[in-house]
Write a structure and sequence with these properties.
By secondary structure, this protein is of the alpha/beta class. Helices cover about 50% and strands about 20% of the residues. The chain has three domains: about 140 residues, no CATH class; about 110 residues, Ribonuclease H-like superfamily/Ribonuclease H (Nucleotidyltransferase, domain 5, 2-Layer Sandwich), CATH 3.30.420; about 130 residues. The longest helix is centred in the middle third of the chain and has 25 residues. The chain is elongated.
């Protein structure tokens, strides 16, 4: 095999002619040029163009290290005149437009950012963390316009996730059919969500059939206005969470009464019963089962609150054909239970009954979205040092949107 072909294989470049190689201190400088078919192309659209000038002369692109040696590709950087984009730097086959690194270097860094900690990436690739953020954004942009990821959406989940102190949120949209994150943007309000539907377009909005979300009014109002064919599905986790919070409020009420009346032993028992009341029955320890049995005898109201919580949880585990009847029975019981926190929960669920019923019928929840949010919270720590949420969004899209390229040399 010709040595030039071997070097092209080692460097991971295509449509490239290797001219010379020479060491320069602790670096290896590889002089290259594009093959004839790859020359005089617009750096932004790839269209063949007429030459404009020689640009700023020769420039260098950082490549993947060879062992302990840094590698740089050096070539001319002429400019061309594109009919669409005007005068731009000509494209090169070994790097993305505007990058100071080869395509293989970008892809390796993006993959590591998805999998590794910040310090490991900096040490291995020998670059700064802000540079990693720029590479991630560049790789995500190269994956195609956002509109390509929004085609054929039918069932989506919408939620917000905090990414920084001071009420800083991202709005995220997940495709239930693929499980992938398809869109994210800073903000958690109507204006932010409308940007997603503007990008989706009128026809795309018409194809949306089901939307899962929590009880946030800004989500419900925008979806109702923009997606006339969509049904809203209330997330089961949030509904059960309301009952769990109501149960804990009933427990605290009796705890406060016991302290007020000087029954400190009773207050102590109620405080220790918290986890026995909140845990699922199948997860209870023997000691917690005993605590529940004692409450059944000593505090009928609190035990009734516990049964209300468990019955509502059973609604979302019941078969679809009987779940709606079970929900209506629970609402009747909760309205008459004379426990104010549960009366409020019943009133809230009554207002959102259509959304809860849709979730029961279609078996759709925000579980996928919540799992994505948990992952975003984990990678938020890696994103510290980025100066804008865009780098975090790009990292999330690489990790959860299926946009991360393969490692160089791997199919």
């Amino acid at each position: 095999m010709h040595p030039a072909r071997i070097w092209k294989w080692i460097l991971g470049v295509e449509d490239t002619v290797i001219e010379t190689l020479h060491p320069e201190g602790d670096r290896l400088i590889v002089r290259v040029r594009p093959m004839a078919r790859a020359r005089r192309r617009c750096g932004r659209c790839g269209r063949r163009c007429s030459a404009y000038d020689r640009g700023d002369g020769r420039r260098r692109w950082r490549g993947l290290d060879l062992g302990t040696v840094r590698v740089y590709l050096e070539a001319e950087s002429p400019r061309v005149r594109c009919v669409e984009h005007g005068v731009v730097v000509a494209a090169v086959p070994w790097a993305r437009h505007g990058a100071g690194f080869t395509r293989a270097f970008d892809d390796m860094t993006a993959w590591l950012a998805k999998e590794c900690a910040k310090t490991a990436i900096q040490a291995l690739m020998r670059i700064s963390w802000p540079t990693v953020g720029r590479i991630i954004s560049r790789v995500m942009a190269d994956a195609g316009p956002p509109s390509d990821r929004l085609k054929n959406l039918r069932r989506i989940g919408i939620d917000e996730v905090s990414y920084r102190k001071g009420q800083r949120y991202l709005t995220v949209v997940v495709d239930h059919d693929t499980g992938k994150l398809v869109w994210a943007a800073p903000g958690a309000d109507k204006a932010t969500l409308n940007k997603f539907f503007d990008l989706l377009g009128h026809d795309g909005c018409q194809t949306i059939e089901l939307v899962s979300a929590d009880a946030a009014s800004w989500i419900r109002e925008v979806v109702t206005d923009r997606c006339i064919n969509a049904e809203m599905c209330m997330d089961a986790f949030h509904v059960v969470q309301w009952a769990t919070q109501a149960l804990d409020e009933v427990r605290r009420q009796y705890w406060r009464k016991a302290r007020t009346w000087g029954q400190h032993w009773k207050a102590h028992d109620l405080r220790g019963a918290r986890w026995a009341l909140l845990k699922n029955p199948e997860d209870l320890t023997d000691r917690q089962r005993i605590v529940l049995a004692e409450l059944q005898e000593t505090n009928k109201d609190l035990f009734r609150a516990y049964l209300l919580k468990e019955q509502l949880r059973a609604v979302f585990q019941a078969p679809s054909d009987g779940a709606t009847r079970l929900l209506d029975s629970w609402l009747v019981w909760a309205r008459r239970c004379r426990l104010e926190p549960f009366v409020k929960v019943a009133s809230t669920i009554t207002q959102l009954r259509d959304q809860v019923v849709s979730a029961l019928q279609h078996r759709l929840s925000n579980a996928r979205v919540e799992a994505t949010n948990t992952g975003i919270r984990l990678i938020t720590r890696r994103a510290y040092g980025f100066h804008s949420p865009q780098a975090l969004i790009a990292l999330a899209m690489l990790r959860f949107g299926g946009l991360c390229p393969d490692l160089p040399g791997r199919a």
